[in-house]
Design brief:
The structure holds 2 protein chains of 2 kinds. By secondary structure, chain A is an alpha+beta fold. In chain A, 34% of the residues lie in helices and 37% in strands. The chains are: A alpha+beta, B alpha/beta. At the A-B interface, helix 2 and strand 4 of A face loops of B.
Chain lengths: 122, 510
């Protein structure tokens, strides 16, 4: 049980860091934790008229690979489905958009060691 | 935005102009290629994406659709990498203007953005010349020489995407690529042909080979093991006349499609000599694939197909020879259509007279049973045998011939006579599309093989005694015509006919 709540806390911390970083960069945050029946997208933001679907991956170490490596094929497929759903229901399905991944590595004290934004992943 | 870029798709030795339509629209990022692409074409996506990125250009974000029109023709090969990349750059606004639309593009892309050569460039450029109003093609330096063989089309060789973008923006100057056709064609072949002077004795067979070379006749050698059949066959190329420029282009087209032109030789000037092992499959002989690539038969076009150990080839391979030997072409039918490949070849075959090899030998005893002999010889069907003009027995070389120091005639002398006979045929057949006696049809035989009464009677006697077929009869006439030509004789005399009849031994032994 503690592991699960630890994980959730880890994820939430990471998202917080990500949102702050994006705001600093001038993006407007449209939605956080958008859910639908296909799955979930961590952050939906907008910049220069382009909608950006962002997946945040937080890790404390890279024993099991870098954070961004966790966005594998299966996950990518899911993200596309959720994104499609969002576009259809909230604007139109040929709205300019892209997919980014924010990859965060934390140290033992939950302080960010590295934060990377990888643009246009899919 | 939509961009349309020109390219070429090959089907056999011919092909079609292809419109490569590239559309970049906003929406969920995607990259699809449609228009019946093969696997190699579908893999273009990865190469194009990476090549563009590594060239310092931007790979557009959004919904990318590529259509290779017309949509119902199968597309094969990495040739579309380049036009797709150009289309993407235009559709994403990175290549401005309409200069790009003046050219046709054919080439494969490496991941670093450099342009690689493709197979079939010569036929491809010929499609541009014959089937479109475009007159310039952008290709890889690897293909430049081959592409420049075609008159009237400007060839621009670019090393990579960056160079092409510069060229199309007017910032980089690319010179038209030229190749010296004359120099290429008259270049002495690096291959040293084996000389007939190295073969001791066997004067009868050498004579038969000379006749075959002079008239383009198919030939079968039957004899015991070690009698020199293979050795003799290999030297035949050395007494064949050179390929004419038209013939050279035809052969080059076929080799290009088979991907055999790599290595900096843009033009084939030597007669093809193909010697497939007898374990070759039917599709190895005919050609294969969804869009059929040439097999050994087509690769022997204007050259020699040497089939050693003829009865060891499987039945299908042997049967596949029928149409080429008769019509001089090969039609391969597939679900979506058929492809015609030219196959005017000279068949040279070698076989043992029986499984042990010594049937009919003067000194050694044959150890086969009659059934074995029959079964072995029946592998060569009657119809196939009929289509071979000259049958000659190769006997064991006598010791005197082997050890004697008599000068055996050189290939050069034999070639001289062959060329003389060929010139007579050239004059005889000028303007008819035939080049050699072996290809005469019944009309030509009527015209050029008039016989005196004596000669007619001689052939009639042979016809009845040997129970020859009509086809065998016309072959005898053709060979007699060549023999007469070798002696620069206008009329076919008795000795010519008599010798020609001699070359039907297989009929006699059946």
């Amino acid at each position: 049980m503690s592991i699960k709540s630890n994980n959730r806390a880890l994820g939430a911390k990471g998202e917080e860091i990500a949102v702050n970083l994006l705001k600093e960069r001038g993006l407007s945050i449209l939605q956080q934790n958008f859910r639908c029946r296909h799955g979930e997208i961590d952050i939906i933001a907008k910049e220069n008229g382009i909608i950006i679907f962002i997946e945040v991956k937080t890790r404390k170490n890279d024993k099991y690979g870098t954070p961004e490596a966790a966005v594998d094929h299966r996950k990518q497929k899911r993200l596309r489905l959720v994104a499609a759903y969002y576009l259809t229901h909230h604007c139109h399905d040929s709205h300019p958009c892209r997919f980014d991944v924010v990859s965060i590595l934390l140290d033992r004290n939950d302080e960010p060691v590295s934060v990377r934004i990888i643009e246009n992943c899919l | 935005m939509l961009a349309v870029v020109q390219s070429v798709s090959l089907l056999g030795l011919d092909g079609y102009m292809i419109d490569v339509e590239v559309d970049v629209s906003p929406g969920l990022p995607e990259f699809t290629i449609v228009g019946l692409p093969s696997t190699a074409v579908r893999e273009s996506k990865e190469r194009v994406r990476t090549a563009i990125k590594n060239s310092g250009l931007v790979f557009p974000i959004g919904r990318i659709t590529v259509n290779l029109a017309p949509a119902d023709l199968r597309k094969e090969g990495p040739v579309f990498d380049l036009p797709i990349a150009i289309g993407l750059l235009v559709a994403s606004g990175q290549l401005a203007g309409s200069r790009f639309a003046e050219h046709v593009y054919m080439g494969e892309l490496s991941l670093d953005g450099s342009l690689r050569g493709i197979a079939g460039m010569l036929p491809g450029v010929l499609v541009v010349k014959d089937k479109s109003s475009y007159n310039s093609v952008v290709v890889s330096p690897e293909n430049a020489d081959e592409a420049a063989l075609v008159n009237g089309i400007s060839i621009f060789a670019a090393r990579n995407i960056v160079e092409i973008v510069g060229f199309l923006n007017g910032k980089v100057n690319l010179e038209r690529h030229h190749v010296d056709l004359h120099k290429l064609y008259s270049k002495e072949s690096a291959e040293i042909y084996e000389d007939f002077a190295e073969v001791r004795g066997q004067f009868k067979v050498k004579r038969a080979l000379e006749i075959a070379a002079a008239g383009g006749h198919n030939l079968l050698m039957a004899g015991p093991p070690g009698s020199g059949k293979t050795m003799l066959a290999r030297r035949l190329v050395g007494i064949m006349p050179r390929l004419s420029p038209d013939e050279a282009l035809e052969v080059t087209k076929i080799f290009s499609i088979s991907g055999l032109l790599k290595g900096g030789v843009p033009l084939i000037t030597a007669r093809p000599f193909r010697a497939p092992h007898h374990s070759v499959s039917k599709s190895g002989m005919i050609g294969g694939g969804t869009i059929p690539k040439p097999g050994e038969i087509s690769l022997s076009h204007n050259g020699i197909l040497f089939m050693d150990e003829l009865p060891e080839f499987n039945r299908d391979s042997l049967e596949s020879l029928r149409q080429p030997l008769e019509d001089g072409r090969l039609t391969i039918s597939r679900a979506h259509g058929s492809v015609d490949y030219p196959a005017k070849l000279m068949l040279v075959a070698a076989m043992n007279p029986c499984p042990c090899g010594y049937f009919g030998d003067e000194t050694r005893e044959c150890t086969c049973t009659p059934t074995q002999i029959d079964r072995y010889r029946n592998k060569i069907s009657g119809p196939l045998l009929d289509r071979i003009d000259i049958h000659v027995e190769v006997t064991r070389v006598s010791y005197t011939d082997l050890s004697h120091n008599i000068q055996n005639e050189s290939s050069e002398k034999m070639l001289h006579r062959v060329e003389r006979a060929r010139r007579i045929q050239q004059r005889r057949f000028a303007g008819t599309g035939i080049y050699v006696n072996a290809r005469m049809g019944s009309r030509e035989i009527q015209k050029h093989c008039r016989l005196s009464t004596k000669v007619s009677e001689l052939i009639k006697a042979a016809y009845e005694k040997l129970a020859l077929s009509a086809r065998a009869y016309s072959r005898i006439l053709k060979v007699a015509r060549t023999i007469a030509d070798l002696e620069e004789c206008q009329q076919i005399k008795e000795q010519h006919a008599a010798e020609a009849i001699q070359y039907r031994i297989m009929d006699r032994n059946r």
